[in-house]
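=== Structure Prediction Worksheet ===
Name of assembly: unnamed complex
Input type: mixed (protein and possibly other molecules)
Chain count: four
Listed entries:
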Amino acid sequence: MYEIRDPIHRTIPFSEREKRVIDHPYVQRLRQVRQLGLAYTVYPGATHDRFSHALGAMHVAGRMWARMVETSGELLRAHFSDDDLGYFRQILRFSGLMHDLGHPPFSHVSEKFMPPFNALDLPKAWLVTPKQDRQASHEDYSVLLIAALAADDTAPLSHDEAQDVASLVHHGVMPSAAWQKRFGENEGSKGIHRLLRSLISGELDCDRMDYLLRDAYYTGVAYGTHDMEHLIANLGVVDQPDRGLVRTIDSTAVRAFEDFLLSRYHMFLQVYLHKTTLTFDHFLEQALAEGEFELKIPGDAKGYARLRDSTMIERLFTAAEDERNVWSRRLVNRQPGKLIYKSTNSKQDEKELMAEVIDALKAAGVPYFEVTSHQYLSKSLPSVEGEGGPSSMLVRRKMFGRYVFEPIERFSALLTKYNESIDMTHLFVLPEHYAMAKSVIEKFAR
Amino acid sequence: MYEIRDPIHRTIPFSEREKRVIDHPYVQRLRQVRQLGLAYTVYPGATHDRFSHALGAMHVAGRMWARMVETSGELLRAHFSDDDLGYFRQILRFSGLMHDLGHPPFSHVSEKFMPPFNALDLPKAWLVTPKQDRQASHEDYSVLLIAALAADDTAPLSHDEAQDVASLVHHGVMPSAAWQKRFGENEGSKGIHRLLRSLISGELDCDRMDYLLRDAYYTGVAYGTHDMEHLIANLGVVDQPDRGLVRTIDSTAVRAFEDFLLSRYHMFLQVYLHKTTLTFDHFLEQALAEGEFELKIPGDAKGYARLRDSTMIERLFTAAEDERNVWSRRLVNRQPGKLIYKSTNSKQDEKELMAEVIDALKAAGVPYFEVTSHQYLSKSLPSVEGEGGPSSMLVRRKMFGRYVFEPIERFSALLTKYNESIDMTHLFVLPEHYAMAKSVIEKFAR
Amino acid sequence: MYEIRDPIHRTIPFSEREKRVIDHPYVQRLRQVRQLGLAYTVYPGATHDRFSHALGAMHVAGRMWARMVETSGELLRAHFSDDDLGYFRQILRFSGLMHDLGHPPFSHVSEKFMPPFNALDLPKAWLVTPKQDRQASHEDYSVLLIAALAADDTAPLSHDEAQDVASLVHHGVMPSAAWQKRFGENEGSKGIHRLLRSLISGELDCDRMDYLLRDAYYTGVAYGTHDMEHLIANLGVVDQPDRGLVRTIDSTAVRAFEDFLLSRYHMFLQVYLHKTTLTFDHFLEQALAEGEFELKIPGDAKGYARLRDSTMIERLFTAAEDERNVWSRRLVNRQPGKLIYKSTNSKQDEKELMAEVIDALKAAGVPYFEVTSHQYLSKSLPSVEGEGGPSSMLVRRKMFGRYVFEPIERFSALLTKYNESIDMTHLFVLPEHYAMAKSVIEKFAR
Amino acid sequence: MYEIRDPIHRTIPFSEREKRVIDHPYVQRLRQVRQLGLAYTVYPGATHDRFSHALGAMHVAGRMWARMVETSGELLRAHFSDDDLGYFRQILRFSGLMHDLGHPPFSHVSEKFMPPFNALDLPKAWLVTPKQDRQASHEDYSVLLIAALAADDTAPLSHDEAQDVASLVHHGVMPSAAWQKRFGENEGSKGIHRLLRSLISGELDCDRMDYLLRDAYYTGVAYGTHDMEHLIANLGVVDQPDRGLVRTIDSTAVRAFEDFLLSRYHMFLQVYLHKTTLTFDHFLEQALAEGEFELKIPGDAKGYARLRDSTMIERLFTAAEDERNVWSRRLVNRQPGKLIYKSTNSKQDEKELMAEVIDALKAAGVPYFEVTSHQYLSKSLPSVEGEGGPSSMLVRRKMFGRYVFEPIERFSALLTKYNESIDMTHLFVLPEHYAMAKSVIEKFAR
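=== Predicted Assembly ===
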């Protein structure tokens, strides 16, 4: 057994075999990619990298599963052997570790410069839809790197395991043939794949639990904290007649769950969508779009793994030495845009005011730029009818001496409320245009 | 300057004069009264007393005011002298210190055995309504003890100061004649009394800020934590044409305020209304109601100050040695009632089910007892039209280069949502009746 | 399984059987006895009771053992069955829970009023020396209550278990005959009893680990914190040719261990021997010695269990209403003595100065009082030759590819340094004599 | 006023003028240099940069000073005007902010490749000894960058201020002529420069206080924590007949100070001198020494400011793609050396054993490498006779009604003990030589 110190979980233990995967260059690369991109320009403490988060997610995934086996061991053992349960545990931990493998440096910006999906060297046999007319995403690259890592002799990960891991990480990847054979026809294991996936990417998953605590810790913002111990302690599994195995959370932990949701909401508003980070992201995007420096994202694993934060940082600072590269210079010299107005797109009056302000700026010839952010607060709602819906977690409560199971969204008014997307538009002008803008917008001031 | 160590605020400094008030037996008595009554029977860590809370509230009141003078000094200095501002500070700190002076031991229960309001030896001249046909409350006793403390030669508190302190602590007490003369006719000081009172007893006051942090710390429940530093840092004052001076909070702190509200909500559900505490409170009340031991609450300050937790604890344990005192015995021997059903009174279906369950128990001859809890989550809503309404705190935000001030309830959807009363009924049976009850309620299980 | 919330360990789980012991009145009594006696008069947060500490010690004892079984399972399983290991675990947890059962209210003071050892209703067969000409101690009362609890039909603790528990808690109690038979003749189990006892009462035991963290948490003093997680994680067991089974700690945790020792040292100087607490302890002792109120400590379990903090608090406040009871009044009215000088008895110059100061006070006829404190920082040194010596914990480190085991005192210079007793004398005068004293001591001022 | 969020100090406020210094590229460069170099390869959380530490040190310097003005205002105001006190505050904050400006990326290694002192473009008039035959250090570069920053039109720092700041940061820099004129001839201000410098670089300075808390926070190691609040709260100033103004700490904080020292000691042993970081440092040094990639350290400010971590990271990874660059590859592929033996140089038996082991490895032809570390735990001892000696902080305690001041080293046995240098040698072999080495060293195993 090995152990690594971590400020969030104190100590993260891992096995010899896991060590070999962790030490692989594709995982180690995450040390060179910051978790929050340019957020450190606003929250100087936020220098943490994706590697710590990957270890943390691995750790949390394992703990969630261990707890479910503890609380619902009888039910699980009725359908699965100890080997099966051990396999799930290992796959979950690997999925936690590798779920973000495909993040490029400064993900929010770089993703916009990714090649087409079809240009990626993906294992086609794993995919539900092998050809897709769309731009690649970092999730696709995670699959690419997981497959490449397994293909590497040095990494102790079989092809089947890699596919099963990928299937928990990416909704477009099917479980391996071996999985299908082992669990596919067993009526008792119905729902198990969806259940495991919900621990990696669901309403209450290892990804969110770790990153909220971690981002809060490193930014120094208290909002991200939540009672992870209590949430994990109250997990379980139930077998539902129609749907098979479904994850449960005890009713005593519903308040902790609401707190968890609110943490996420507040982190979005205060940190992830902070106005200054948004303008710097915009500058970086402009610098790339206008060719101030180059970012070529290769379609093969080896080439992709060469992309590090330092690669872009060096190019950016070099570009900024040339006076013509105005966007790079703004970013390097820390000259953020000035926020003029911020509208939530769902609020009609704000949308209308935004349009009026923009018209006024246009009429006065004041240059401006907009940043539109679109974030799903919940991973579930968009596919309510599908398997990832919120009902993928049921609340267990005792009533009149018996346990009843209810969809969490019926139990928590907050969930319904925050289960929306956050659509927001920030309107900025460059600092040198602010004086002009000011005279225009003053008339909107009440 | 003196200093005292405190786990919540680390160090609480106070002056020589304040020390003399703090050392007065009426304040020291709070060391002998636990903050959360019988909650320690469920949360063993919750042994903290009202004395620490009093010091903490004093400290927070001073900090809030200091910050407001810092951020809005220009405005305040336009209307008040440095002496005035210093007086407000001192009155606020004393109010924080003494706001809970009148709590009897095991307040929730004992208050039900208080004498009529008119039996109290109160300074009638202070009161808006000197005679009232109702039972006295702990707030009335706070006024009684503040007045008596000021009347004591050893305490360095003038009669006028004491009245002004009482007027911040109790809504039925008017400020002193000296206050009226000093600030009453000055147009610029309009609203100052309401503003100061909102720091002692308002939506975001020294009382709540301290007790939420303290109760969370001592129970070990994470929910009560909130970002007090951020909340205080964003306080200010605005002068509104119609209403005079009003407290403000910057828009960047609205999320922290929502978190604060939610903390309170969760503390209610998880701690203050915990089912086991509720049954023990009920047992204590029954023991008193049936005369298993005596609780006589005197109407004079000196007599009242003899009431300590230990007084009741000793009587309770002595009573419990006699087999006939069944309620005392249940409490001492830790035999809580069994919860049968819990209904939120605002939910019609829950209320109806409750009625059905009760009917069934009655029909089957199963003894039961109900505990109905009624808590205002917000101190403001009931008097929206009045001065204590939520609009007593305005959100300040910059829009188009100018500050605008908006009522916080329009700004925060959460506030509206949680600004309700919590009405709840818990239905219990005694342990020895549970077997009977079980067969009755099983038919309600879905 | 049951769970209880605790601010130090978050959640403390326990079994149905343990619940029945925890709910026994002799354990519940600890809720009515504060852990730090009168320290709350100086550190107002320090209201925690011995019950929380008992739960915490139970929890830590179980965790230490679980870790040792984890790291040294092979060695332990070679000598013991799973039943044996489970028995040790249960006995350890019960010992943690009940080790302080015999503490009277305000222990430091009350112990001085205990009856002779021979007056106690102890199970003589358990004792190494059944008759002893000395005053009883709270440890003796712990044995008395453990035996009485086991004799009670309602508590699920056998007579043999109770004796084994008592043998871990009290050095004068032998393990049961059943224990002797089961483990006494087995060469492989040599040292096991000493090893288990070191977890309850040794250099690094469940008692100290819990109370340092707990006292630090409740007083708000940072010094008591230490890295319990790291300390537990590095525990193990080794089989030494001559001594049998001995506890080990890995060399990487020696720094954490030094930090733990220093924490203890600092807590003594800052909290446990705080000058104000010492004078109040002195006042309480005087009040009892001069019969201002009564404290009769019975020799039987049932009578002893009636002693609560509230018993003494009530008597104290009642006594203080009578003007003649000066000591009670000083305590209730918070008039601590004034510290004149503090000497460490091992420092010759300080001892000499103390003698001179006392002579001068005497000569001038100024009344004074001394409080002499005597505390062993380490439980081991006094019996270096015996089994409890510091070598009862060996440091394990890897050297040249092999593990070597060394006595911890050779490894840590700090341990040697702090492994002394703290002998201290505080010299006080009553406040009303301070003016007189001042003119006398001024000449000692440099 | 501006504010920045920081996980250690929660909120760090700064003025408009300070903002302009903070935003200068020479200060912003610290964002691109990690505080602990390669330590993140062992403690993945340790990604924090020197920028946060610079802000933190600025903040702590200001707080220490503010407290000293609070506790010793009368004394200070007798000698200095409010303008003087304000100037000291500003100079202290700037010194905290800029004290580490000259750190190159991966300081421990890069410093060895620095040019000669005389090649630096330093303001000669500032220096006590303008020409020196030695290699430049990062402290020299701090002076270089402070001077260059002041020379830059955009930064609001006068030449004199810059020199005064440099004189607090670097022992070889004199205060400005203006300073000499203003304070040099005033008898009452004797010692003030030494006193201010002790807050930047002394036994208890803003640098150490911030970095210990910060490094502990980011590594997740508890040892670095100490009670900064208590330490600051107990600072003061005394005027000594012979030495002028000297900093004091109250005797009640001596325990906290010991805890602070021990924290530092433990951080060295556990973090700063961790064996794995040492081997990676060694590999980086070898890669540079053997020219696997280039590091040229310019002697001018502008050129120097182009050095970032990313510069070296990019070169390192590029180098590692070539099979011949073995040191770069070991580092990138995470193949640390294997520790054979670690000796403390002050322990004769360890030194001798080390020599024997090395002889044995040599005899057997096993390649090895040594890393010798030399760290002063205390900045004071080496120059006991000089002004920086430990007596630069006096302990204030009340004795017989009067304050006495004693050198802290006489007060604290711990200080004496830990006031030594840590000299340590680690002996490693490369992983591929470990099998050979093992057979050699086995004979040393006891």
